[in-house]
Specification:
The structure is a homodimer.
Chain A (H helix, E strand, L loop, with lengths): L27 E2 L5 H8 L5 H10 E4 L1 E5 L5 E4 L1 H11 L6 H4 L1 E2 L7 E2 L5 E9 L1 H5 L8 H23 L2 E7 L4 E10 L1 E7 L2 H4 L3 H4 L11 E7 L2 E2 L18 E6 L10 H32 L1 H28 L2 H19 L2 H7 L2 H24 L6 H15 L13 H11 L7 H19 L4 H7 L4 H10 L6 H8 L2 H6 L3 H43 L12 E6 L3 E2 L5 E2 L2 E3 H7 L10 H6 L8 E6 L11 E3 L5 E8 L17 E5 H11 L3 H6 L5
Helix pairs in contact in A: 3-10, 6-21, 9-10, 9-13, 9-16, 13-21, 14-19, 14-21, 16-18, 18-21
Chain lengths: 688, 688
Amino acid sequence: MRPIRWAAFAAVSFALFACSLTADDGIWLLNKFPKQAVEKKYGVEVTDDLLNRLQLASVRVLASGSIVSPSGLLFTNHHVASECVQQLSSKEHDYMRDGFQSASEADEKRCPGLDAEVLLSIDDVTPQIAGNIAAKVPASEVNATRKANIARVEKECMGRTGNRCQVVTLYSGGQYHLYRYKRYDDVRLVFAPEFAAAAFGGDIDNFTYPRYCLDITFLRLYENGKPAQTPDYLRWSKEGVKEGDLVFVPGNPASTGRLDTLAQLEFFRDTSYPLIHARLGSLIETLKTYSAENAENKRVAADNLSSQQNSYKAYTGFLSGLRDVQLMSAKAAEEKRLREAVNADPSMRESFGPAWDLIASAYKSFRSDYAPYWLIESQATRGSELFRIARHVVRLAEERKKPNSARLKDYRDSELQGLEATLFAAVPVSPSMETAVIANYLEFLRTTLGANDPTVRAVLAGKSPKEAARGYVSTSRLANVAERKRLAASVNAVRNSKDGMIRLALLIDSRARALRKAYDDRLEAVLTENVSKIAQARFRIRGEADYPDATFTLRISYGKVAGYKDERGRDIPYATDFAGLFNRAKGVEPFQLPARWLGARSSLNLKTPFDFVTTADTHGGNSGSPTVNTKGEIVGILFDGNIESLPNRFIYTDETSRSVHVSAQGIAEALQKVYRANRLLKELGIEQ
Amino acid sequence: MRPIRWAAFAAVSFALFACSLTADDGIWLLNKFPKQAVEKKYGVEVTDDLLNRLQLASVRVLASGSIVSPSGLLFTNHHVASECVQQLSSKEHDYMRDGFQSASEADEKRCPGLDAEVLLSIDDVTPQIAGNIAAKVPASEVNATRKANIARVEKECMGRTGNRCQVVTLYSGGQYHLYRYKRYDDVRLVFAPEFAAAAFGGDIDNFTYPRYCLDITFLRLYENGKPAQTPDYLRWSKEGVKEGDLVFVPGNPASTGRLDTLAQLEFFRDTSYPLIHARLGSLIETLKTYSAENAENKRVAADNLSSQQNSYKAYTGFLSGLRDVQLMSAKAAEEKRLREAVNADPSMRESFGPAWDLIASAYKSFRSDYAPYWLIESQATRGSELFRIARHVVRLAEERKKPNSARLKDYRDSELQGLEATLFAAVPVSPSMETAVIANYLEFLRTTLGANDPTVRAVLAGKSPKEAARGYVSTSRLANVAERKRLAASVNAVRNSKDGMIRLALLIDSRARALRKAYDDRLEAVLTENVSKIAQARFRIRGEADYPDATFTLRISYGKVAGYKDERGRDIPYATDFAGLFNRAKGVEPFQLPARWLGARSSLNLKTPFDFVTTADTHGGNSGSPTVNTKGEIVGILFDGNIESLPNRFIYTDETSRSVHVSAQGIAEALQKVYRANRLLKELGIEQ
């Protein structure tokens, strides 16, 4: 999954268990939506029919999206689909810069390796997964058995239905649900605005509000070479939004840490996030330097740079939350109260009491391994297409020989189809950018682990990071898809390969696997077991009011269209308009509007709402979620959260944190007056 | 003059000559204050008595300040006086971190080398300066004659009155006024808050609003070892400010470029400011790295780092204005109209017509010399105490031998007293910080001018920048005041000195002087002559409605206390309050409040106004200006402008640009409840 633009979140306020049902918090499971709370607060009845329609029109595609016509038209963010836009571009046709508009179905261009999934059903499979593991010790064996159970259940479902099946771990192991998806492996680009309009304000405005981004792209799902028939689609609202409206946001939030313990948060604050932050900062500098060399480099690196900048800014916000003494005191108080409640009950005390300390000591014992784990295993290939391919080729060859349940997670049968689609897609590879990124990786590795680290010595082999990177990239043929397939089919072909990038991946692979195993056995296993205990304790005390932390699966958030008074006392209106966009368009990047926009200015109704904010609880992965009114119609599309919403990853407040959406009215106005996108307007039912 | 915190500006709007009397623009000369315009707009009569009181209570001290008691109490910004606070601090007593409060007169500590001046009189001396130069050619000779005339008039005045006298060039040479000052060379520290309270929000909040800074310091003027008698002082207002109030801001704006031609602005945008920006960025990185090493380094570098960051952010704002196509088109249109008006009148056309092109070609011819000029002559010593001292010692020895009128400007008789007071003051010198700053200078010099530049080769002499810097600093004895005096007294002592820093200053001095001469003859002389012509043309067309660009001399601005709607449509209230301060105090630098503040929280009236904004036209150098109501009472103190005000350096708008002040009510509340500064409160008349 690619980095996601923003993050936003759910409503618990700073007191434990307080007022969560008066605020619009929650990334709710489809089958546990808090209908009563919404009806009580908004006087709106949420019917099963509405929830069902939202489920069948929602799409998991890199992040989120929705179906908006009976012919497979898929609506998502530009920053979600930008990898495709970048890959379809060339020196001659720069669709990132100029935008893309298909004049007819024949013009629609297939996105390399991109697939999309629609959730068909959810089944509780907790007994099948957790039934036979209760008596096992140690934690690492429990973990292995659980993984084997999951692999088995998924494979059985896939064999039976032919669909993609995935077991989702909820409440940190409190429940296991089987999600069954219809998968589309042919997704084509229909319409994209210019990057300058989609990401107006660039890195400066990212994660801020007021905002002026047309962060939209239209794709189309194809089946058997024809537009897919999609009778369950969402209609475009004629009215759009106004202040105070209730909206629903279905989508796939990817990661939240609301239930994390204090020890986890401190580990993030002091160990992992600072490393991630430093790595991203260093990679961004490299990509900026590379981009500054010439126009073609700038074009090639555009999507990569903007992704890394987005992650960097997100971690800046997360860190700012973790370094906020008020937030951390609130989390500490929350944990103290929960532990006191557990300790007050002898049976809970025995079962759950030690969980917090066990988690803390697992983090402590893993601390010194974290940097090598993250750099050599978890995020080694960040920013590099070739390195990502090389690692998958090396591992695919090896993992495929193993029984399904013994494989690394990414290579289980349930994942293989998607992985191969991405891995064997023809995508542009820029050797010069690859060299720059790999050199930066090697240099960062040396700085962080030291010149005497065995992996550092092995990968540098006496060369400078630049020389070494040049050697690996210049001798690689992995840009060629056939070569990838040839290698991935045979362990021997991989082992004997002289391909530079394959050699690099092999050089670090055994240590990377060892670090992964250490992580799984010493940290993840302890976490899974004990976080699950804490979740059970919460569940006993709290009942069904809780929703599980995010799992990149379909959830529904709801909230109100509402301005706010920000931390510095400024009154922030709920919506921006086109007049504000032109006012902020200074003519200098990233505040430069495309010529087409400047030309259309006089024809636009400048008071049309452009972007707007809501209290909906959304997070990274929700990007591209449709914003839907109580009639189930599209009134906008989520694309970001404000900077105040980032600490909501850990604890929800809705005083100043907001989700940021593009308004349906703004999109219609731009499609009509700026892009004259008549084909699209007709299909959306906006024009006859 | 030290870098100044903020900048803000005057009111011309984006159309030439339009509405300048309906907006609150103008940095007005004391003797040309627009009384009628103010009376018409605000219904307030501005009397000569009020202007006179403002003049005699205003103080030029690094930037601006005012006298606020009959016993010489001087009120200015913390960031103006912070150099003194830093210099009085030691490892044992860190007044920057902890603040300073004198319990009695005996506790007040003298600021090393600091002097302060009060303006006594203004006389027009245009005939004496410009009378005998009309017929001279070339421009360089005109320039030399003018400088000689100025030196003569200043010296004559000084001899006659015993005061410090300075000829001020107004309207770019359209007029020359003789300013006579009473000078105080004994200024002592009375009260300073903690840096964390004075500069709350640090570099992040600098040049932004809403804001929460207690950016104040109290000093005291002494005469003959006793507090000075100052019957002309400003009283503290009991009411403070409220929205809509008219206020006056007397002070010393240092530099504006409202009358600059397009060629000048383009030179700033494309040549000089990017260089300055890069140099500051590089120096800031060096100081941050140095500060991160340990707590003592952090203490030592605090003021230096915050000054450089302040300049960096100011240039960021200036550049953003110059890169704004709307601003530049407005300036281009303004210039076009003025040139058309000049060309439409045959006599004006002959006298003034060629001025713009002559300026443009002077900039063009100097462009390739600009980087060496700026780095070797103009700003060589930036960030270094020892290098600044070394250059002055080297030049003082040499210049003193010359006749007054032939000396470099800084060494004219009128400047000598002030220069020697600073140069021979005992100030702390940190060899480790000096080494870091000089190394950064040498490295930047090499990067910018290239390794083969003769000055670069001479100063590095085959060493790395770090080695070279270590050599210069470790062999210097200039931290010793007696050594400075000994050297400055004799050209031979300087020439034979083995002092590392003296050698460094000598190594670059002849090229530096040559670059200065080239600058004076080829650029400054052309500018003086032709900018003056443009000013005369404007004057003929516009009449007395114009005020001259800033000259770091006393001006009066006026404006309204007023919130605004910012560029992104947010409603910004006119004032912040203490509640907002505590809300923004996250407990992490630079949003960490001192313990004293946290302890006083419950006793404070949290609704007390803290900082507020006005439309007054203020600029760098205005820092510390009193904010005065129509009764001539203190209602606040200016300390900054918002980021939107920075482009006002070139063209005034008051839609979103604002000056930022600390409120008198907020200061009183903090002095009473947080600092319990009873002695000060009594002297200010706030408490009995």
